[in-house]
Amino acid sequence: MGKQYDARYFQRWYRESWIGGNARLARKVAMAVAVAEYHLQRPIRSVLDIGCGEGAWRAPLLKLRPKLRYLGFDGSEYAVRRYGSRRNLHLARFGDFAELRPCAPADLLVCSDVLHYLSARELDRGLPGLVELCGGVAFLETFAREDEAEGDEDEFRNRPASFYRKRFEALGLRQAGSHCWLSPGLAGDATALEIS
């Protein structure tokens, strides 16, 4: 039957055992916003959140930038049904972004804690679309074989970091540290030691 991203899943992983909780999320959001604004040289105006779940990033983003346009997509029918209209969440699987272009390229594209659960086929199908939809910085929080990550291990794909790095770089993304990747349009403006 496969993994179910239902009410029980979000209760278990986002309320009962959420590692670091809301304080850690707020720091992560602030860091991603700061990196994007540093490289864009202006405040961010739009965020596209792929694999957004219940839209946990929305509130801390709007606390920092109240006029921000937030748009989220997730494959969980439960999350979209429950929070979709209030949090601007829509139903789509990662692979749908091979064709789906729901907005102009976003200043900050978020895909947090998603990629390491996808098959290589679905990842390769949707990733080029994410790169096209990123006009600034992509926050691609992904865990690899080399990490000692804690959390949901059901369907976790235990791949080396090089698996992801090669794919991101082949599409023109350049690493800016702490899960942040510069879009192809911004990468050329970065200095040598800002990117790896």
UniProtKB/TrEMBL annotation:
<protein>
    <submittedName>
        <fullName>Class I SAM-dependent methyltransferase</fullName>
    </submittedName>
</protein>
<dbReference type="GO" id="GO:0032259">
    <property type="term" value="P:methylation"/>
</dbReference>
<dbReference type="InterPro" id="IPR013217">
    <property type="entry name" value="Methyltransf_12"/>
</dbReference>
<dbReference type="GO" id="GO:0008168">
    <property type="term" value="F:methyltransferase activity"/>
</dbReference>
<keyword id="KW-0489">Methyltransferase</keyword>
<dbReference type="InterPro" id="IPR029063">
    <property type="entry name" value="SAM-dependent_MTases_sf"/>
</dbReference>
<dbReference type="Pfam" id="PF08242">
    <property type="entry name" value="Methyltransf_12"/>
</dbReference>
<keyword id="KW-0808">Transferase</keyword>
<feature type="domain" description="Methyltransferase type 12">
    <location>
        <begin position="48"/>
        <end position="133"/>
    </location>
</feature>
